[in-house]
Design a protein that fits this description.
Helix content: 10-25%
Oligomer: single chain
Largest sheet: 5 strands, mixed
Number of domains: 2
Strand content: 15-25%
Distance between the termini: 45 Å
Number of strands: 9
């Protein structure tokens, strides 16, 4: 059973006012936007609800909910921003989080998936040999593989990369949006989204 803290920190799909997915936020933030009148909750039939009408919906047994002073309220899994009509630019920062996301928290040498604190970042071509900190020279590595490789290239260490590293071509939120673990309430809004469209660079 999911705790109340777990529920308010779980994920909500955010749509722009044209019903296109643009972001993923937390339940806590979604309720804040609903309460301020900046967004409306959306159900699987594309119906929209302001905070008052959403809070008046009955909570079914299968619905996730959180407790308020006036009673339980259903957790919205999709919200619609009322005045936002843009789509996100693809700005993929070169940082630890996005490298882990690109490599799916998996050591690129042994293929073992693990938690992020147990992973390190490895320079494929070591800095001692002129390697740079770039998308195509950094991979996730478990600590044993990193120690085994040391200051050598994979070829010198007789190790094989699972895949060649490169700059990812996804908007960061798409990893969650198109994950098999996404919420069923998201499906109607993702089924019409062409992932190639979201992967292309948008013109200014």
């Amino acid at each position: 059973m999911t705790s109340a803290a777990g529920i308010v920190n779980s994920k909500v799909l955010v749509l722009n006012r044209h019903f296109l997915p643009v972001h993923i936020t937390s339940v806590r933030r979604a309720f804040s936007l609903l309460y301020q009148g900046l967004a409306e909750a959306v159900d699987e039939q594309y119906r929209t609800f302001d905070f008052r009408s959403w809070s008046e919906l009955s909570v079914a047994v299968r619905d996730e909910s959180v407790g308020l002073v006036q009673g339980a309220i259903r957790v919205p899994r999709v919200i619609l921003l009322l005045t936002y009509d843009r789509v996100p630019r693809r700005e993929i920062r070169f940082n630890r989080f996005n490298v882990y996301s690109r490599d799916r928290n998996t050591c690129q040498y042994c293929g073992v998936r693990m938690s992020r604190p147990d992973l390190t970042l490895d320079h494929v071509v070591p800095r001692s040999q002129g390697g740079r900190s770039t998308w195509d020279n950094i991979v996730c590595s478990c600590q044993p593989c990193n120690r085994r490789k040391g200051g050598r290239t994979p070829k010198q260490a007789a190790m094989t990369l699972m895949r060649e590293p490169r700059r990812p071509d996804w908007t960061p939120f798409l990893l969650d949006a198109f994950s098999p673990r996404r919420y069923r309430e998201w499906r109607p809004f993702l089924s019409t989204v062409d992932i190639a469209y979201w992967g292309n660079e948008l013109e200014p």
